[in-house]
Automatic annotation (TrEMBL):
Extent of the signal sequence: none
Any single Pfam family the record assigns to this protein: TIR_2
Domain of life of the source: Eukaryota
Protein name, UniProt field: TIR domain-containing protein
Organism: Rotaria socialis
Length: 304
């Protein structure tokens, strides 16, 4: 699909406007193209894209985002700010593009300002909830960056806001996702300590057996299940993987996953495109690295 979109772009390139043009119809076409491009861009394609090409798109989307935030109805043309933020949230998985975005004058401050604002009014409308959720994703990505993590940590209002989100008991889909991301932010900022929590001891466990924890992206669960089946057949140690050890496996099991990492001897990482683009997996690697755990990567895919 992304190649088809590019072919269309090349065919009609001369008809598309530059950013400064006043033709509103052509601007709408350009915005639609850029949003579709971001929606279709997968990690594999993202790695192959030229920096200059993506930066052109980011520049344009950022301008529309600012205009949408400044409008009374949160729209810029036919699109609301949430649609621009969703595109940006997808791009900040890539560190190079994230740094490019937040290095632009006033953009980091804009994200923090709107993050605090929409947290306060998050539940008032569905649109506000969606905006808040996208901003959480962006702030989580920023919190992985050492040069910005200290700035986030020193913003007391932001920390208290995120801590309140962790305590939210709503079962709404967006609320649960924001709670999961909030935990990730606090962990990256060293405001959420896992090792101090009590750890349940398996009465049937054998302390002399090698303990292996498997770290994988949930989108690769089928491949992971095959790996686990093979290990169980030939390996005599203890294998910890969420879908076997937890009653219901989902991405909000961070406390249990962190304990498993702390207690294991070896971590097997199933490294795929999905793994490399997952902030949850990145958090697991950071947690393991801080504890000097031995990590063995299993590469899957033509690019690994």
């Amino acid at each position: 699909m992304i190649n088809t979109l590019k072919q269309w772009k090349e065919q009609y390139a001369l008809k598309l406007p530059v950013v400064e043009d006043d033709n509103e119809h052509d601007k709408e076409i350009l915005i639609t193209y850029y949003l579709a491009y971001l929606a279709l861009l997968e990690p594999k394609e993202l790695k192959k894209e030229s920096i200059s090409n993506v930066q052109t798109i980011l520049d344009y989307i950022l301008e529309q985002t600012i205009q949408a935030f400044n409008s009374a109805n949160l729209f810029c043309g036919s699109y609301n700010v949430c649609e621009f933020l969703e595109g940006l949230a997808k791009m900040v998985v890539n560190d190079a593009f994230l740094i490019y975005i937040i290095s632009r004058e006033g953009i980091y401050e804009l994200f923090i300002e709107k993050f605090l604002l929409f947290n306060a009014i998050c539940e008032s409308t569905t649109l506000n909830t969606m905006i808040c959720s996208s901003l959480y994703t962006i702030i989580w990505s920023i919190s992985f960056q050492p040069e910005y993590s200290m700035k986030l940590k020193s913003t007391d209002k932001l920390i208290s806001t995120v801590e309140q989100r962790v305590k939210n008991e709503s079962n709404d889909e967006y609320a649960l996702e924001m709670k999961r991301v909030a935990k990730g932010i606090l962990f990256n900022l060293d405001c959420l300590q896992m090792d101090a929590q009590a750890t349940a001891v398996d009465p049937n466990g054998d302390d002399n057996r090698i303990k292996v924890m498997i770290s994988y992206a949930h989108r690769d669960i089928t491949f992971c299940e095959k790996i686990v089946a093979k290990l169980q057949k030939y390996f005599q140690g203890d294998i910890w993987v969420d879908f076997n050890k937890l009653s219901v496996s989902h991405e909000d099991d961070w406390e249990d996953i962190a304990k498993a990492i702390s207690q294991c001897d070896v971590i097997l990482m199933i490294v795929t495109e999905n793994y490399c683009s997952s902030k949850s997996c990145r958090r697991e690697v950071i947690h393991a690295d801080k504890r000097n755990k031995r990590m063995i990567p299993i590469y899957q895919g033509n690019d690994y």
